[in-house]
Amino acid sequence: MHEPVRLTGKLSIEETNHSFRIVDGEVPMRASYILDATEVETAPSFGSPPQATNEWAASIAERLRASGQLQDNGTTNEESP
Q: What is the pTM of this model?
């Protein structure tokens, strides 16, 4: 799950070339800018509550059930036999 953030800092134009090791080996990561972040705020800090909560997911599921698109066992009507 992702969470929105607000970054404060200085964005500079500068070419960078770094390598990152991931599962299958090293991957080149090239960019044309550098962000020197001085502050990072999560969504609740800047006024909008996060949308991806269990209450939010439950409300979406309830709306789908009410519309007839989702059954009580979590499958859609297209998936049911």
A: 0.38
